[in-house]
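ok here's Universal stress family protein, seq below lol
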Amino acid sequence: MFKKILVPVDLAELDFCKSALDATVSIARTDGAAVRLLNVMQHLPAMMAEYLPADFDNIQQKNATEALAKLGAGLDLHPANISAAVRIGPVHHEVLEEAKEFGADLIVMSSHDPGLRTYFIGSNAAQVVRHAHCSVMVVRGRSEPR
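and the structure came out like this:
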Protein backbone atom coordinates (compact mmCIF):
# COMPACT_ATOMS: atom_id res chain seq x y z
CA MET A 1 0.00 0.00 0.00
CA PHE A 2 2.77 2.48 0.91
CA LYS A 3 5.91 2.67 -1.19
CA LYS A 4 7.79 5.65 0.30
CA ILE A 5 7.71 6.47 4.00
CA LEU A 6 9.24 9.59 5.53
CA VAL A 7 10.15 9.49 9.23
CA PRO A 8 11.20 12.74 10.93
CA VAL A 9 13.66 11.90 13.71
CA ASP A 10 14.77 14.14 16.56
CA LEU A 11 18.28 12.90 17.23
CA ALA A 12 18.21 14.54 20.65
CA GLU A 13 15.21 12.40 21.66
CA LEU A 14 15.70 8.99 20.06
CA ASP A 15 13.66 7.21 22.75
CA PHE A 16 10.75 9.49 21.87
CA CYS A 17 11.02 8.46 18.18
CA LYS A 18 11.16 4.72 18.90
CA SER A 19 7.40 4.18 18.58
CA ALA A 20 7.34 5.88 15.18
CA LEU A 21 10.36 3.89 14.02
CA ASP A 22 8.79 0.62 15.17
CA ALA A 23 5.57 1.44 13.28
CA THR A 24 7.57 2.39 10.19
CA VAL A 25 9.56 -0.85 10.17
CA SER A 26 6.37 -2.86 10.49
CA ILE A 27 4.71 -1.05 7.58
CA ALA A 28 7.85 -1.02 5.42
CA ARG A 29 8.44 -4.76 5.86
CA THR A 30 4.82 -5.54 4.98
CA ASP A 31 4.68 -3.22 1.96
CA GLY A 32 8.33 -3.39 0.83
CA ALA A 33 8.51 0.38 1.18
CA ALA A 34 11.53 2.66 0.98
CA VAL A 35 12.16 4.61 4.19
CA ARG A 36 13.70 8.07 4.42
CA LEU A 37 14.90 9.17 7.86
CA LEU A 38 14.87 12.96 8.24
CA ASN A 39 16.51 15.16 10.83
CA VAL A 40 15.63 18.85 10.84
CA MET A 41 18.08 21.24 12.44
CA GLN A 42 16.94 24.65 13.59
CA HIS A 43 18.54 27.87 12.37
CA LEU A 44 20.75 29.30 15.07
CA PRO A 45 20.08 32.86 16.19
CA ALA A 46 22.48 35.32 14.54
CA MET A 47 23.73 36.52 17.92
CA MET A 48 25.11 33.01 18.60
CA ALA A 49 27.03 32.82 15.33
CA GLU A 50 29.94 34.92 16.59
CA TYR A 51 30.58 32.38 19.36
CA LEU A 52 30.66 29.34 17.10
CA PRO A 53 33.20 28.10 14.55
CA ALA A 54 32.58 29.24 10.97
CA ASP A 55 31.87 25.67 9.85
CA PHE A 56 29.54 24.84 12.77
CA ASP A 57 26.51 24.15 10.53
CA ASN A 58 28.56 21.81 8.32
CA ILE A 59 29.88 19.91 11.33
CA GLN A 60 26.35 19.58 12.75
CA GLN A 61 25.01 18.34 9.40
CA LYS A 62 27.84 15.81 9.10
CA ASN A 63 27.20 14.54 12.64
CA ALA A 64 23.45 14.29 11.98
CA THR A 65 24.04 12.42 8.73
CA GLU A 66 26.31 9.93 10.50
CA ALA A 67 23.80 9.48 13.34
CA LEU A 68 20.97 8.83 10.87
CA ALA A 69 23.11 6.29 9.00
CA LYS A 70 23.81 4.48 12.27
CA LEU A 71 20.12 4.59 13.20
CA GLY A 72 19.12 3.27 9.77
CA ALA A 73 21.63 0.43 9.99
CA GLY A 74 19.99 -0.65 13.25
CA LEU A 75 16.53 -0.96 11.69
CA ASP A 76 15.35 -4.40 10.64
CA LEU A 77 15.12 -3.41 6.96
CA HIS A 78 17.23 -4.04 3.88
CA PRO A 79 19.90 -1.31 3.71
CA ALA A 80 18.96 -0.51 0.09
CA ASN A 81 15.51 0.53 1.31
CA ILE A 82 16.80 3.13 3.79
CA SER A 83 18.03 6.63 3.05
CA ALA A 84 18.54 9.73 5.13
CA ALA A 85 18.36 13.50 4.79
CA VAL A 86 19.27 16.45 6.97
CA ARG A 87 17.56 19.81 6.47
CA ILE A 88 17.78 23.17 8.22
CA GLY A 89 14.73 25.28 9.01
CA PRO A 90 11.36 25.16 10.74
CA VAL A 91 10.51 21.51 11.46
CA HIS A 92 7.03 21.29 9.95
CA HIS A 93 8.04 23.21 6.81
CA GLU A 94 11.10 21.05 6.18
CA VAL A 95 9.18 17.82 6.80
CA LEU A 96 6.57 18.86 4.23
CA GLU A 97 9.23 19.89 1.70
CA GLU A 98 11.18 16.64 2.12
CA ALA A 99 7.95 14.64 1.75
CA LYS A 100 7.31 16.35 -1.60
CA GLU A 101 10.88 15.93 -2.86
CA PHE A 102 11.07 12.28 -1.72
CA GLY A 103 7.62 11.53 -3.13
CA ALA A 104 6.43 10.15 0.20
CA ASP A 105 3.02 8.56 0.33
CA LEU A 106 3.19 8.28 4.14
CA ILE A 107 4.78 10.35 6.89
CA VAL A 108 5.17 8.59 10.25
CA MET A 109 6.05 10.90 13.11
CA SER A 110 6.02 11.01 16.87
CA SER A 111 4.10 13.57 18.85
CA HIS A 112 4.08 14.64 22.47
CA ASP A 113 0.85 14.54 24.42
CA PRO A 114 -0.96 17.80 23.73
CA GLY A 115 -0.54 20.53 26.28
CA LEU A 116 -1.78 24.08 26.71
CA ARG A 117 1.19 25.48 24.77
CA THR A 118 0.32 23.28 21.77
CA TYR A 119 -3.20 24.68 21.60
CA PHE A 120 -1.89 28.23 21.28
CA ILE A 121 0.99 27.78 18.83
CA GLY A 122 0.38 24.34 17.32
CA SER A 123 2.67 21.35 17.27
CA ASN A 124 4.87 20.27 14.39
CA ALA A 125 2.80 17.11 14.02
CA ALA A 126 -0.43 19.14 13.82
CA GLN A 127 1.05 21.40 11.14
CA VAL A 128 2.23 18.40 9.12
CA VAL A 129 -1.17 16.70 9.39
CA ARG A 130 -2.93 19.89 8.25
CA HIS A 131 -0.73 20.57 5.25
CA ALA A 132 0.70 17.24 4.04
CA HIS A 133 -0.08 16.07 0.51
CA CYS A 134 0.04 12.44 1.68
CA SER A 135 -1.17 10.29 4.58
CA VAL A 136 0.28 11.03 8.01
CA MET A 137 0.48 8.62 10.93
CA VAL A 138 1.07 10.32 14.26
CA VAL A 139 2.40 7.98 16.91
CA ARG A 140 2.41 9.08 20.52
CA GLY A 141 5.88 9.05 22.01
CA ARG A 142 6.43 6.96 25.08
CA SER A 143 5.38 8.86 28.16
CA GLU A 144 5.25 8.21 31.85
CA PRO A 145 2.16 6.32 33.04
CA ARG A 146 -0.53 8.59 34.45
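fwiw DSSP finds six helices and five strands in the chain. kinda neat tbh
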